[in-house]
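Narrative of activities, Objective 1.

The group set out to show that a structural description can be obtained from nothing but a protein's sequence at a throughput compatible with the screening campaign. Below is one input-output pair from the validation batch, recorded exactly as produced.
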Amino acid sequence: MMPVVFFVLIFLTGGVSSKKVCSYHDVLDYLNLTTENSVLKLTRPVLDHTHPTIVKVDFILYAILAVLEKTQTFIPFLWASVRWNNEHISWDPAQFCGITQITVPKDMLWRPDILIYEMMQKNESPQNPYMTVHYNGVVSTDEGTKVVSICKMDVHKFPFDTQRCSITVGSEVHSANELRLLPFSNSSRATQFSQEVMHSQGEWEFLQLSVSSHNYTFDDKLWELITYTFTMKRRPLLHVINFLLPILFFLSLDLASFFISDHRGEKLGFKVTVLLAISVLLLILNDILPSMSNKTPLIATYCIVIFALMLFSLLETILVSYLMEKDSASRKKLRLKGDYENKQEKFKIDSCNSEERRHPCCSCICKVSGGEKQHEVLPVAEEVNKSIRSGESHVLLLILEELEEMQKTLILHLSPREEGGKFTHWATRINRGFFIFYVATASLFLSLIFNEWSI
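Output recorded for this entry:
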């Protein structure tokens, strides 16, 4: 019974059920969209030439490849999407098995001449050779674009700076009466999409992508432009570790050098070495910063002021060393003078002793000659006379000479009335005053510069 029913059903339906098969070629044939048909790619696709073609543009930041301060260049990788309406193309998806879109090569249809005004080099990234055509006449193309653009940078707060680089999109041929240029995404949506698809930021942290439209008049025609502004903040950790902290360490070493004794030459050589190290860091800074800037970068002020402080510190050390050396020369001169007088006195005493041995009556002469400088030597004339008489004159004279030498040495080193002592006193006061000035100036300057960086 069942086979009979199945046969009846097949007979009533006209045999085996057939499903309609469609292909993209059917749509292309219906649209007459072939490579030989050049009409669709020669002119702007409108039925009425007074109707403008609306083009929607969307740029999403995919990666920040480089930001070069020296050449004022911004190199991002963007995902560009362009959509427009072709009034010559449309079909009913129900007639073509529900086909709503097809993919065709780019050279088969007209495309708007969208260009980036800040572009410095030709786009070298791989190009998408196809575009998508929708049943309602909307044509869209998506591709990645490596943009090498000019960016006016403000490096005043380097390396704690925030840069804003813009790219301007517009048509070179069609004015606003022929081509209306509109952004597909607003600022918040473009920022959100960029943060979601961002793959590489490197030294920079992406903050915001703002989108704005504006017009300008040229040659009695109105032109529409879309400006994309990328806001980025530099990650300063690398520059702080490699540049700012070493200079701060060198400043600390220069402050610590004030505790080195001024009587030695190590202090002067140490300060010269630290100053040369700062000079090397200034050469590195010259390779980083651009040669032209509207404002002097704070980091340049930071280096120059610290360099100047260390230079003044070196000059102060030279002055103090000069005063100490002059004081030392005065002391040496006095010491040589004292040694000469001591030798003269010793020679007189020895002459008297030798003469006394021959003629005892000459002891009075020795007493008189020894009393000529009684205010500078110890009052031991009577003891010497007695010792000579007792036969121990030679040993006592040696002791007397040593005591006189020690007395003169103590007078030279401890008496503040001497000429050399004044130079030492001046050098000490200059060193103490400059150290206070150095610490106060460095502390105030560092507070101001770091406060300016943090604003």
